[in-house]
Structures are given as structure tokens and as C-alpha cells.
Known about the structure:
The structure holds two protein chains of two kinds. By secondary structure, chain A is an alpha+beta fold. Chain A has helices at residues 8-12, 29-39, 45-57, 73-78, 108-115, 133-144, 164-178, 214-220, and strands at residues 15-23, 85-90, 94-100, 120-126, 149-155, 185-190, 233-235, 238-240, 252-256, 261-262, 267-271, 275-284, 287-289, 292-293, 297-302, 313-316, 322-333, 344-349, 352-365, 372-373, 384-397, 408-412, 419-425. Chain A contains eight helices and 23 strands. The radius of gyration of chain A is 24 Å and the shape is globular. By secondary structure, chain B is an alpha/beta fold. Chain B folds into two domains: 7-192 and 288-297, Rossmann fold; 202-284, no CATH class. Chain B is globular. The N and C termini of chain B lie far apart (43 Å). Bound molecules: guanosine-5'-triphosphate and magnesium ion. Guanosine-5'-triphosphate is lined by residues 25-31, 66, 80-81, 102-104, 155-156, 158-159, 192-194 of chain A. Residues 25-31, 66, 80-81, 102-104, 155-156, 158-159, 192-194 of chain A line the site of guanosine-5'-triphosphate.
Amino acid sequence: xTQGIFDSNSYMNMELxxxxxxxxxxxxxxxxxxxxxxxxxxxxxxxYENIKATSERRGENFVNLALLTDGLRAEREQGITIxxxxxxxxxxxxxxxxADTPGHIQYTRNMxxxxxxxxxxxxxxxxxxGVVEQTRRHSLIASxxxxxxxxxxxxxxxxxxxxxxxxxxxxxxxxxxxxRLQAKDIQFIPISALNxxxxxxxxxxxxxxxxxxxxxxxxxxxxxxxxxxIDARFPVQYVIRPYNDEFxxxxxxxxxxxxxxxxxxxxVSILPSGFTTNIKAIExxxxxxxxxxxxxxxxxxxxxxxxxxxxxxIVRENNQPHISQDLEVMVCWMGDKPLQKNGKYAIKHTTKxxxxxxxxxxxxxxxxxxxxxxxxxxxxxxDIGRITVRTTAPLLYDAYTKNRxxxxxxxxxxxxxxxxxxxxxxx
Amino acid sequence: MSFTLNHLxxxxxxxxxxxxxxxxxxxxPAILFSGGKDSIAVTYLARKAFYPAPIPFPLLxxxxxxxxxxxxxYRDKLVSKLDVRLIVASVQDxxxxxxxxxxxxxxASRIRLQTTTLLDAIEKYKFDCCLGGAxxxxxxxxxxxxxxxxxxxxxxxxxxxxxxxxxxxFNGRMNVGxxxxxxxxxxxxxxxxxxxxxxxxxxLPSLYFSHxxxxxxxxxxxxxxxxxxxxxxxxxxxxxxxxxxxxxDITSTGATFSEASTVDEIINEVAATRVTERGGRxxxxxxxxxxxxRKKEGYF
Lengths: 427, 300
Ligand SMILES: Nc1nc2c(ncn2[C@@H]2O[C@H](COP(=O)(O)OP(=O)(O)OP(=O)(O)O)[C@@H](O)[C@H]2O)c(=O)[nH]1
Ligand SMILES: [Mg+2]
């Protein structure tokens, strides 16, 4: 490739980091994303002109960078984020997919949507308000969703005289709460999203802060270890049968590896039937591969003709997932109606469709204290609780902490077809 | 040994996963094919997703009638090369059948009229899913779109009340009469698409590459001279060296000055550009929320 002003080769070898924003309403999430994009020169001139004109029309005395992500009419009218906006930028080190999510409690489901695929969450806290209930709820959700890296940004430092004391107090409060969360890698940064302090460049207003800027953190946080490369799990997504003369007996199992590695010749089991066979070939686009690993989409061909359909799973014979109809689950509820004990819901788990019945509601979490409420808990919208379900067909699963793909499923209201529950399988 | 996919391979894998998911969850999907690079990318990705079987869906072209001839030639060549079925639904037919009324005046455009033609085609052919090449980086309303985007029985998008979309578990359940739009390359940027075209050596319509063309300027947009666009008296046509960054209906697709005549040169140009590709689209300049408004009515 030609080398112009732009180095194609380094671009081709960039790693992808997906991150999400979280925190209470008005803590400055969208402004921060705007600032990050602006200061990393990722905003196009026409986009900038556009939000500048809109800001002027609204009588704002500065260019409101939150308008870069708050693109819906209703969001601009109300000055809040309603649904996730996805934005993209890259630096010479990495390519980033940002999910800017809403802080308003009413739209928690959209925050969960943005967080469910993220490697890292930026948790914003308004320096004037400190840790509030939404900070805790979002941190808890991020942690339950298995996000390993939290960048806690204490924002609006300009409104508290860039005070080290304010920062230290909030860090202490947050640490106390976070000691009960699973996320291990937590970093704190004092910032002003509005003015850009410690976002892309170091702040002159806070010489007392010795840590790194937010962008530096995003560029360097180690994420290669986040994918499970041990347990080979290949949920069959689609069976390819060309039915033409050239490929008459062709039967390929198309899908995407959830985790682990597969190679031609591997001895595998087909679940749930339990038949064993060997991998004859792994193909992609007609080419033979010597190995496939998560998250590659490939087609697997087997030595023996076995009846396999969507929802089945190809795994190594000596490393198999759990298989059960009875599951212990943490659920993040998003339905308008409360979760029904003994209620039946449709579920989607890997590529499998099934139904489930809620056998028991064990507790729900008090978001502020993380205490378990066990006395007749009712799980309403935005609540998080522990339940037991029984499924119509056995699920092939791993604990979510080991596998974000095979350890998760969604619950769907069979009347409205709306997704109402994000479910995390415990073990 | 390191098991990492570079970002382009990750995006490809994600897109193929989404396309296969659409094939598995719906009875009767179609690919919305405009002749632009994004729908070309989706078509090639679909080819890979099911190879060696043919693409299990037809291509649906909502034809405004105001096309670049190059687009139609490219389309027909691709259809025969990939052995897919092509369905053309024409805005002109919708006008003839009085389903819609043609806009009048200099800035008349058939962009909005496409919605009716599209919804009629969905109904006629009973498509329950249309795969599109829309990308979230294109436009601020599109930035909010799910991979599996639900449409009610009127084809409407309800941006304030989208279904949660958790992990890679796409919920394509719906009631009769409703349908889905599915966007496999949601997470790709313009640069990603070009990098991919280069990596895969995919042939593209000549309009994307630098060429001499007679153009004129209107409201900051460089439009091609064409029988479909009435000229104002003060407008001056000049031959210039240009290319198109997006290709759609001729009346609303702006050209940019460019010397880039190979994919590599385009990649360099796109990497350095300071304006978005839709900056040249007259259809987005109509109001602050024109894309959102059109999408609510059922647009692509
Ligand atoms: N002074 C000051 N104001 C800020 C800062 N960051 C954000 N703001 C202001 O705080 C208000 C809310 O900012 P947003 O970015 O919309 O907040 P948000 O967290 O995205 O809100 P939701 O998405 O609705 O939850 C706006 O008026 C911002 O201008 C900051 O660092 N300093
Ligand atoms: Mg916001």
C-alpha cells in the first residue's frame, strides 16, 4: 500500500476498544464525549458548524459539545440524553467505539444496552454532588455486566475551584462503595469536560493530580486479556446447504466463536446430543483456515453427518459447558410491568430460543447499600435481583464471569415482544 | 501466539454475524440496494456469510428514476455476477398510481417519496426484514439506531422507545404486519468501508473515483449537470475534477473536488478530510432533524 499522509498499515493493525459512559443525569457524559472528540480532532467541520449554529440559536454562550451525541429532536428539546448514541474515533494507537448513554433513571435500559458490549466504562460524577444513587446503580450494572475497567471521572472540577479535597473525598466514598463490586481495575481522574482539563491534555489547574489523562488511559488500558481463549464454544447459528451440483453434499455450520479456539482435526462434541466427531475443515469465504478463535465468524465442517441445527453448540470433547434447565440468575429488569413470579417469558441464549418460567425471586438489591431485600421482593423496572428460572430446553452455558457470551440471556415479554430482562448466569 | 483480530476483521465478523442472524430469525428478508458503497459492502458481506450457497435474499432497489447511469450499469453487472435476484420498486410508479405527489420547484427531490415506495414494496413482497447499509457515523439520528431496528405496522421508527439490545442477542420478534430493519455495518466508519474495499479488492462504481464532470454549485453543494435537475438562471456549469463520496439519487448527491483515482488515494483523502460525507447531501440540509423525521415515517 502507498504511504501517504496516512499510514495504512498501522491503521490495519489497530486494536478496537469499546467504551461506554455512565453516571447520573447532567453529570456531563455527553459533554465529555464531545470534548474527547473535539480535542482529539475527530469532529468534522460541518458537524461543528452545525452544533455551533444550534447552540447559538438556543442562546447558549458557548458551543454545546453535548449536541454531538444528543442528536434526537426530543433530546435537544429537553437537554438530556434519551438513547445511546454511538460515536467513533481513532488515534494512532487505537480505534474506539463509544456508546454515550443516558443518565436519567427512566432510560436505564438504554444504559444497559450501551454497556453490554463495552470493555471499559467511564463513570462520571458531578464534583458538586458526589456519589449519588444513579452513580451506584450504573457502577453496579457495569460491574455485573463484567466490565473490567472503570474510569471514574470526577467532573465539573471548575465549579469546585479544582479542589483536591473535594476530589479526595469523592474518591474515598466511591472506593468504599466499589469494594463490594467485581470490577478490579478502577482509576480516578479529576476533569472538566466543559473546559477539557485532563481529558486529552493535562490540566494546569490541578497540578496536584499525578495520574494520567483520560485519553491516555483509553489508549493504553490492557484489554487483550478480556476475551476467553480457553473454552472453545461455537454456537451453531445457521446451517449452510447449497443444494447445487458443485457442492451437493456440502453441509457447513455457520457461526461465530463465543470463546476459545478451534482447529481442523479437533475432536469435538455436539451438544446437547453429545455425539462426537472431528472437525474436517474450518472455512471462511471459501478459504480453508488453520484455526479460528473468538470472535471470528466462520463455517465449520465435520467428519460425520450428524443432525445439527441452530442453537446446538460445538465444543471440545474435554472442555464442555454446563447443561441445565434450572438456572441461578441475576436479572436487570427493564419491563414496565414488574417481573412475575411464576411468569413465563421467551428467552434468547446464544443462538438458541426457548421459554422459561420464573420459579423464585430470591432478593432484590438495595442500590445504595447493596443489601439484599429478601422480604417479598418485587422486581420493578430498573431493579436488579436474583432469581431462579426453569427453561423449556436445557441451556448450554458457562458462568457469566467466565464467559460473557454463553453466560448471558435475555427475557422477552411474549405479549409485547419487548426485551424485558438482561440475565446474567451465576454458575 | 496472539489471538487478536484487527478492528477491520472484528467489524467484518460482527457484520456477518448480524447478516446470518437476520437469515435465521426472519422468513423473508431483502437487502436494500442503492448502488452506493455501503449497500455494496453489505451485499459482499452477505455473499461471504453464506458461501458457497448463494445469498438467500433478493436485492431490493428503490429507484427514484433520477439515477446516474453508472449506478444502474454497476447494479446489473453485480446482480449477474453474484447470481442474486433483483427487485426494482420505482418511485415513478408510485407517482403514476397517485400514491405520492411529485415535489415541484428547483429543489424538488424524490428522497422523501422513496418511503412510500419502500413501504409499498415491503407490503407487496411481504418482506419482514430489510437489511440496509446505514452506518451510525453517517448522521446523528442514525447514531441512535439499533442493529435490529423494529418498525411498527406503519413502518415507523420510534426513537424514544427502542427495544434494549443486549450483548449480541438480537430480538427479532414481532407481530404480523410489523417488520425490521437490520444494519450489519452499523459500527463501520466511512474509512473502514474504504479500507475494506481495498483489502478485499472490490470493484466499485466509477463515480467514486476522480473524473471530469460538468457540475454547478447550489447552496454549497456541488451538483452534477443532469436532465433531472432544473437549473436556475444564474447557475453556471463548469467542468471540474470531482468524485462522489456517497451515491444516491442524482438530485441530492453532492460531488467533491478530488484527484483521488484509486482506493488507496481515497483512503488517504478520507483520512484527512474535515467534512462528513453527508455534508454534501442536499437531503440532509433541509432541516436540523430531517433524517430523524424521515426515519420516523419509515425511511431507510
Ligand atoms: N461547569 C461545567 N459544566 C459542565 C461540565 N460538564 C458538563 N457541564 C454542563 O452540565 C450540563 C449537562 O451536561 P451533559 O453532558 O448533557 O450531561 P449528561 O451526563 O450527558 O446528561 P444525560 O445524558 O442526560 O444523563 C450541561 O449544561 C453542561 O454544559 C464541566 O466540566 N463544567
Ligand atoms: Mg448525555
